[in-house]
Every structure is written in C-alpha cells, then in structure tokens.
Amino acid sequence: MIKHLISALLLGLTLSGPTRAGGVDDLAQLDVLDGGPTKLGSYVAALRLTLPEGWKTYWRAPGDAGIPPRFDWRGSRNVGSVSITWPSPEVFDQNGFQTIGYETQMVLPIEITPVRADRPIHLKGEMEFGMCKEVCIPGALKFDHDVDADAPRNPVIVAALAERPFSASEADVRTAACRLLPTKDGMQITAQITMPSAGGHEVTVIEPGNPALWSAGTSTKRSGNTLTATTELVNTGSGSFVLDRSNIRITVLGKNHSVDIQGCDAG
Predict the structure, then answer these.
(1) What does the DSSP 8-state code read for residue 207?
(2) pTM (2 d.p.)
(3) Smallest Cα–Cα separation from 93: which of 119, 74, 65?
(4) Domain for residue 226, yes or no?
(5) Which of 133, 162, 191 is where one domain is finished?
C-alpha cells in the first residue's frame, strides 16, 4: 500500500502547485456561463474549462494520481453559498494508473444563493486544476463575472446537469453497508451495495469525507445484484482520525450511468 501511495504521489508531483508558466493560459480557457434564476431564489451558472483536443482534466476524486480542481471564491460579492454539481466523469488508464476526469471540456454547473436577493451577484476568483496528455501540467485560471439575473436557461448547463449521477433511490439502491477494519496505515473499508448493474465494467470510488484520509485504488466485484468494493483509507495526517459513516460518499461509475450514494450503514 505504501509503495502504491508513493508511486501515485510521484506521478502527481507535476501537479503539486498552480502555475501560469509553460503556456497554460494558451492551452486552457475558463468561462462562466449564465443559466438564470431558480424558483428558490438562487441562480444557476457554470464554470466551463475548455482544453485542446486529447487533453484531460480531473474529477473531484482524481483516482490513483493527480489533483482535483480547487476553487477560490473570495473575490466574489453577494454570494452566500455555492453548490457544485459534478457530471459523471470518465475513467482513464494513464501510465499504469487509473485516473478519473473529463476529456477536452469540463462543465461544472453551480447554484449560487445570494446574501441579498435585491443585490447583484459578482463571481470573482480562481480555479486550480491539472491537465494531462503526454505530460501533466498544473494550471490556475481566474474568473471575473457579473451574473446575469435575467439570463434564460442555458442548453450547455442543462446538458451538464443531465449528466449528473443517479441518486441512490433513482438507481434502486436497496442497501449500502460499510465494514471497517483498522490497518497499519489507516483503515480498510469494504462497502457492500445491493443495486442493479450500472452497466459494463463498474468502477467504484469511495470518498471518506475526511481531508486527512487519502483513498487508495478501489477493487470492485459484482455477484448478481450485490456490488462489493474494497479500499484502504490512508491517514496522511498525524495522530488519530475519525471516520463518520454518514460522510462516506460512494460513486459507482458504469457504462450506462453512474450512481452517487451518500453515507453507508454499519456492515
């Protein structure tokens, strides 16, 4: 496990920090798209990252190596909260490692709740990301955008929202239980999920909901309607840690669709 972790970290070293050197600004483009108001008084928008043909960027859980996108909203005005919807990603094999992300373009729908409903919303900040082809390079692009409160529905955002994973109820998940076993470096977690197949070769991602824990590669096997996924959560901090089952997030990526499962019972 430690050897696997070190190898993955070494592969990801080229993504250890943001840079604007090396032509990242020329390779990648970041746009803010308007999607109009919702019935709840919030507003829909999206961050669209466009890359050259063949380039890939990472999902929120990047797999064996790489870094997820990170967002800095501190320059924004009249923004109470921002909720991101992650469309279902693809699974790639990169130098013997499994990575998860998007090819050529990533559209992340966001729902913005203003502090004051009668005031305009201004989005200003920065997104850090990694992008890979034959080589992997980090990048950071700024955004500065006045939200159009009267914008119509945006078909690009609608399409990205349609690509979100199914919820547990939508995917007919009957049970999701997690068995925990302490290990030398952290905690082994085995998730047993009763659900129909998501299609083809299924890949499971287990996110611990604790930033001190790093999730190693997950093995997935299916027997009938039972999916079993096992991974080791490595403690990257010092001292003990707490693992709350209600914060564990399990994503099953299949050929036909993906499934987002929030929390799991004791196994």
Answers:
(1) E
(2) 0.88
(3) 65
(4) yes
(5) 162
